[in-house]
């Protein structure tokens, strides 16, 4: 049943909330422990999430004996386009002689293979909040039945290995399945928090690997450019999607000494206007920024109108190149990009920027690029 009557409004749309894999795991574990002690199945289990929303979760596939019990809860992502929507998260529990609640991952739950993630190397990729939710739910039932011994809890997601290929897990060093996630227990449609946390985790991982100079790129165009420009930079690169501001914040938080930012003109021209979240639903202004700088260096009348009417930055670059203004405009844009990344970082590290187009190649770079590249080579 879940939380079908809970909604939020985003972009003037009414969107239903869902619940996380962490909530599913905690609910399944709580129900399984109840069945272990009660000796009978339970149709639903109640779970209070960290967000303060109470869930009423259907218990599926109940199985129990005097020694163990297991069941599943089906993930409901609400109106969020989540690849894990509809999967079943299982919990199997049994008493142990060792005191405490022991939580581990089974089939389809990823295993951490690199340092720098929330859980240590070798641990199941069950993050801290879900672990706390599981532990609290199990302890609640143990107290209800007067049990003071230990308990083993194994969380499994049979579809997890297949779904992991559609997530960031392989890139992060989480192998064999998906992660059990959720900081609030609730999925908000089109939530940005999970993606930002993934970006922060990858930045932290680069720091834990011993790197002090970082490479950032907004997406696949940037990665493809780096592959041609200098393939070794891909080992340092973190893809930040549209969240440049948060990526720079992460670099400052983890003490990086320098950042090389490489991105397509269509994304980075927004940076010249101080735009740190480059998703089109938040801000565009590409042509306004280009036209304004072109006007300063001589574009007038019909040319300014033609720039404003461009659909892509490649079209605008063609116009600027034909008029002989491209170099002057790019010099101004690179100065503004440099200003805004340094403003966001607060001088915590040096930052250099390269921007390019697939049609024209490198269009501009800031003065510090060669220095950052030299530091990156030293760290190879």
Strand order across the biggest sheet?
Answer: 6-7-8-11-9
Poorly predicted segments: none
Total strands: the figure is 18
Structural class, please? Answer: alpha/beta
Percentage of β-strand residues: 15-25%
Q: What's the oligomerization state? A: single chain
Q: Describe it for me?
A:
The protein is 38% helix and 23% strand. The chain has a 5-stranded mixed β-sheet, with helices on one face. A 5-stranded mixed β-sheet has the order 15-14-16-17-18, sandwiched between helices. A two-stranded antiparallel sheet has the order 1-2. Helix 5 runs parallel beside helix 7, helix 9 packs antiparallel against helix 10 and helix 10 runs antiparallel to helix 11. The mean pLDDT is 92.
Fill in the keyword field for this structure.
380 residues, alpha/beta, five-stranded mixed sheet, 13 helices, elongated
Question: Would you spell out the secondary-structure blueprint of this structure?
Answer:
Layout: E1 7-10, E2 13-16, E3 18-19, H1 21-38, E4 44-48, E5 54-58, E6 60-64, E7 68-74, E8 88-96, E9 101-105, E10 111-112, H2 128-144, E11 150-156, H3 160-163, H4 169-172, E12 174-175, E13 186-187, H5 193-208, E14 213-217, H6 220-229, E15 237-239, H7 244-253, E16 258-264, H8 265-271, H9 286-296, H10 301-308, H11 313-323, H12 326-345, E17 350-357, E18 361-365, H13 369-378
Parallel strand pairs: 9-11, 14-15, 14-16, 16-17
Antiparallel strand pairs: 1-2, 3-13, 4-5, 6-7, 7-8, 8-11, 10-12, 17-18
